[in-house]
Structure formats: structure tokens, C-alpha cells
Amino acid sequence: MAVLQTELVPVNSESHVVMVRQTVRARAQELGFTLVDQTKIVTAASELARNTIKHGAGGTLKIEILNEGIKRGLSLTFEDHGPGIPDVALAMKDGYTSGGGLGLGLGGSKRLVNDFHIESQIGQGTKVTIVRWK
Amino acid sequence: MGEFLLVTIQVDMHDRLALTLQDDLTTRISETGARGVLIDISSLETVDSFIGRMLGNIASMSRVMDAETVVVGMQPEVAITLVELGLSLPGVRTALNVERGMDLLRDSRRQRAEGKR
């Protein structure tokens, strides 16, 4: 699997959530994603960006364009150096929330993409990677 | 729009702006005595859980103030995404467009008036 393009986007404030949505939308359009697929990855990105700010005290988004055989994909990695998630399995469950939201962020984002990977360490931070293939 | 308020959301809102809209709208319902609120989201390209929650809050708040809320014009791709995300907007009435939303509000006003008689 080759990475064709990489860019970094800051995720530190509410206005960055809007910027994340717009940047991800632009990349998804460039890759020729259908409108439904664009909307899915942009919505997942919006949820994860908000998590990064609210729970991770801010961080970064790494956007990568992937190439595997004839497939192209959009990979998004949200990384923060916040407190980490004590129980990842619990945090993935619908309805579980620690931030006063609806608790759909992690589980919901996973349903909107093809690949989902989460790593979290207490006191170190959290890294979530999602990929949507075209 | 007569006894109804029409709100058209045309920009990609950041979270604080969404909360401001929520507050402004409840104030406007109180000031105008509106009996219904139409929220047109046809220009919105994404509705995530935060915006979904805001729409639910507006519906609940307006109900407490004796006004009904109808969300109109949701794009098909937004609807598909919302449901997969796990958000079915409970308690929020929806209609395909502004016209149908108005009909819905008028019908429910009429029904309520008849019920009171």
C-alpha cells in the first residue's frame, strides 16, 4: 500500500472542526467519491475532530491518500496527547458518553467507514485512524 | 411566514453558532408567539451528532413553548449518513420541503384546534 499524498491539519478549536470538514470534503471530491461516500467520511471526520478537541485537549489530523492496486482510499488519523481512554470497548458502545454528547462519536464513525483503528494509552493520548476506499 | 417561523441554515455551522441559533430561536418564538418553526436544512451538506442534537433540542424547547418544529429539506446523502451514524432524530418531525412542512404544521394546528372544541 502506497501513500500518495500526506497533509497535516490542526485540530485545536471549534473552528478547526469546520476546517476539517471542508478539507476532508475537498479531498474526497478530488478522489471522485460519490456524494454519499463524501458525506459519510466528512461526518465521521466531524465526530472524531470534536472528540479530539473535547476529550483529547486538541491534536492533529493527518490526511493521507492511499493507493492499493487499483483502489484509492482516504485515510484520516486523529491524534491527541490527552488523558487517553480507560476502556476503549466501553467508549465504542453507542450511548456511552463522558462529554455530555449523544455518545455516538466513536461507534457511529466506525459504521461510516471501511476501516477503523483505535489506540489509546492512559496519560499518553489517543490515535484513531479511519479509511474509506473508493 | 404568518404564525410560523422559517429558519434557513445556509452555512457550515461551527458548534457555538449552532448553540446561538438554538437560543435565538427560542427567544424569537417567545417574542412572536409563533406556533410553528420550519428549519430548512436543504443547504446543509453534513449533519453530525452535534447538529442532530441541536435539532432535537430546538424541537423539545419549542414544544414546551407550544410551537411545533418541522425540519425540512434534508438531502438524501445526509439522511443515509445520519441513520448509519445511529441518529434517527427522535421527536423531530421532518418533511421533504418547505411547502410540505407548512402543510404539516397547518394540519396539526387544525387538529389541535378541533380537539379543543
Helicity level of chain B, as a percent range? 40-55%
Order of helical and strand elements of chain A: EHHEEHHEE
**Major β-sheet annotation of chain A:** 5 strands, antiparallel
Greatest interface (CB-CB under 8 A), with counts per chain: A-B, 27 and 23 residues
How much helical structure, as a percent, in the residues of chain A?
25-40%
Strand content of chain B: 15-25%
Q: How far is the first residue's CA from the last residue's CA of chain A?
A: 14 Å
Structural class of chain A: alpha+beta
Going by helix content, strand content and strand pairing, the class of chain B is alpha/beta
Amount of beta strand of chain A: 25-35%
The residue-averaged pLDDT of chain B reads 92
Largest sheet of chain B, in brief, is: 4 strands, parallel
Query: Could you give the count of β-strands of chain B?
Result: 4
- Strand arrangement, major sheet of chain B: 1-2-3-4
Low-confidence stretches of chain A: none
Can you lay out the helices and strands and say which pair or pack?
The complex is a heterodimer of chains A (134) and B (117).
Chain A: E1 2-11, H1 14-30, H2 35-54, E2 59-68, E3 71-80, H3 88-92, H4 105-112, E4 115-121, E5 125-133
Helix pairs in contact in A: 1-2, 2-4
Chain B: E1 4-8, H1 15-32, E2 36-40, H2 49-64, E3 68-72, H3 76-85, E4 93-95, H4 98-116
Helix pairs in contact in B: 1-2
